[in-house]
Prior knowledge:
alpha+beta; 6-stranded mixed β-sheet; 14 strands
Amino acid sequence: MLDVFVGCRRVGSILREEATTIVSFLVDEAYFEDYDRPVLGQQFEKHRHYRILRQSAHPGQLPAFFANLLPEGTLDEILKAQLATPDATAMFAFLGQDLPGNVSVQWVSHKNAPAATEALGEPRASFLPGTQQLRFSLAGVQLKFSAVRAEDSRFTLPFSGLGGRWILKFGSTVYPELPENEYFTMQWAHRCGLTVPSHELVPASTIHALDPRFVALGTNVFAIQRYDRRADGTRIHQEDFAQVFGQPPEFKYKGASLEHLARFVGDLCGPEDRDEFLRRTLFLLLSGNTDGHLKNWSLIYPDGRHARLSPAYDFVCVRQYLPKDQLALTFAKETTPERIDWSHIRRVDKYLRNMGHDIDFVGLARSFVTKCQDEWAVHRRDVSPTYRACVEEHMARLPLLGEPGA
């Protein structure tokens, strides 16, 4: 049905069983046997003895890795309306040449998976989406499009053909000044030394031939450079942590704690990326960015095989809109920022040491928290009064800033 590529390398096919409508991914034999193969995803490396991964729990749906490449929220609704079908495979094929990372797909004649091939059925989720508490989610409230930047620095949205090297994120009728909020938060993160892509706050009126309906969403648009595209147009492969752990997109708020993710990053990518992950976790706490779910963390593969932590993205002070919002993922078994103190830092430090990591998380945290406070003292002059008041009210309630870091 669909051939799947990483770059120019065919890695397998996506098939639909006519009788059951179950969608499967069949790994290409030549790709599997190649020791130097480019990595498609950590789930496939983990389950490399399987040739087929089946979405048996949810007939008609794509396996989790590929489902996580589709847009969410409002953009998902627009795409379904444009295609006049909710079929996930059709949507995947439509977007197949401008997917995140270095994955692309193309239609082929129908194929049947060998009946004798051992298959891995992705397990049914242990909880129902309807039982989750409603949360703030950028994917649910914010329109974003891949964009091209011309020589005169103006952006254009290519609604047909391939996308560009930038992502434009528009405002929301539900959450005022969302682009400004993200810009202020990402600027603060950059000041604190975190790795973030180039980004700007762009007047919507300067975007070439923009539909007036988008202008009505807000005065400004948040523009951020894609870290999965190089200047020469070549792609860098990536996968978000929902893909990494085989979680469908609707379960992005489950499946891991922040300290578990830190250990995973350290084991796979090394201590430098682990420490960066921990600093970002602290920044989530200090900045009121409670929406750090699995899809807001990613790996990149600069050489196609070896994973690194991607630059930071989707940093927003959620507490500006939901003052009592909880962390998306637990930190030392806690989700309420106002309850996280230095005992939690020490607990995570002990956990990582017990897992074989040579680390002084307490010292790292003490240094980074001080850095964030110092940079905020300067950055606060460059943000809106609403944002400033929200952040400072949030920070005043944090034990991490009111107790000695030892």
